[in-house]
Amino acid sequence: MTIYDISKMAGVSIATVSRVLNGNTNVTPKTKKKVLDIIEQSGYTPNAFARGLGLNSMNTIGILCADSSDLYLAKAIYHIERNLRAGGYNSILCCTGYDLENKKNSLNLIISQKVDSVIMVGSSFIESRDADNQYIRDAASQVPIMLLNADFDCPNVYCTLCDDFKAMQEVTLNLIDSGIQDILYLYNSKSYSGMKKLTGCQSAFLMRDLPLDKKYQQLFSGSRDDIDGVCRFLNQLREKGLSFRAVICAEDMLAIAAVKYARMNRLEIPADLSVIGYNNSLLTICSEPELTSVDNRLESICQQLVKTLIDTLGGNEMPQKTIFSGELVKRGTTAF
Question: Whole-prediction pTM value?
Answer without folding.
Answer: 0.83
